[in-house]
Amino acid sequence: MITREDDVRIRPATAADAPTVGLIWRDGWRDGHLGHVPEELVAIRTPESFDLRAAQRVADTTVAEVGNEVAGFVMVVADEVEQVYVAADRRGTGVAGTLLAEGLRQVGANGHDRAWLAVVSGNTRARRFYEREGWTDEGAFDYPARSSGGPIPVPCHRYTRAA
Length: 163
Fold this sequence. Notes:
Blueprint: E1 8-12, H1 18-33, H2 39-44, H3 47-56, E2 61-66, E3 69-77, E4 80-86, H4 95-109, E5 114-120, H5 124-132, E6 136-145, E7 152-162
Antiparallel strand pairs: 1-2, 2-3, 3-4, 5-7, 6-7
């Protein structure tokens, strides 16, 4: 049974969190992106790529802990809430909303009055979540996903909200 989490602790990520962040990121990315992004991107999003990127991104990662376990994370860069992922067994418990609120707080602390994020067009579960959380869909655009061969355009929707 999934219950609502009232005891979610938010803290900056440490290097020791990177393996768990990489696993949550990989599993969540596959759930929301497979079948909705170019195969070229799927081919380079290997388990190792998530582990490597999680280790490289510790400085801009904040984790949510429930008990003593990392339950999810958010990555913020300037005014973009770039990544928000929750472990599959913690979805629907309030962890995502807590992380999203922290992302908005960080965008404001970075000196921006509006936050934005990109959601893969076909990820209807995530799109409904952001809309319930008060984010506005500003329309479709191609998000330039980074790769060693240059950006890969990914069909997304841009969502915004006051920080």
